[in-house]
Design brief:
6 strands, four-stranded antiparallel beta sheet, about 120 residues, mainly beta
Length: about 120
């Protein structure tokens, strides 16, 4: 989700509106479940972890320098999961989760989950 701005050369004005959003999403993304908070997206994702694994940690991930997306529309988190009942460091796995919302007042959805951090 990227806010659009139009620059008018002769007047050096910038035109923008919170409704002007460029949506760059894989097909079917807007059909996924939507939630009030980004953390609710993470918890919903963790419900379906394979092998009876559970969410043991979640943290915001710092925005990479190249990423100019609005954090009110796009957020990156890192999560750790572990087998239920065995939360030792050696059993944890990590993922990077990107969430977004369809507009400034929209609900949050999962964009992607990957083992590689955005760089």
């Amino acid at each position: 989700m990227y806010p659009l701005q139009l620059e008018i050369e002769q007047s050096e004005r910038v035109m923008q509106s919170p409704r002007w959003l460029l949506r760059v999403l894989p097909p079917g993304t807007l059909k996924r479940s939507a939630f009030r908070t980004p953390l609710a997206v993470l918890r919903d994702y963790a419900i379906d972890l394979p092998g009876d694994r559970v969410l043991v940690a979640d943290r915001p991930w710092p925005k990479p320098a190249f990423d100019h997306r609005d954090p009110r529309l796009n957020r990156i988190f890192t999560i750790a999961d572990a087998p239920r009942g065995n939360n030792t460091t050696g059993t944890r796995r990590g993922l990077f989760i990107t969430v977004f919302r369809n507009g400034y007042h929209g609900r949050w959805r999962l964009l992607n989950a990957t083992i590689i951090p955005p760089d």
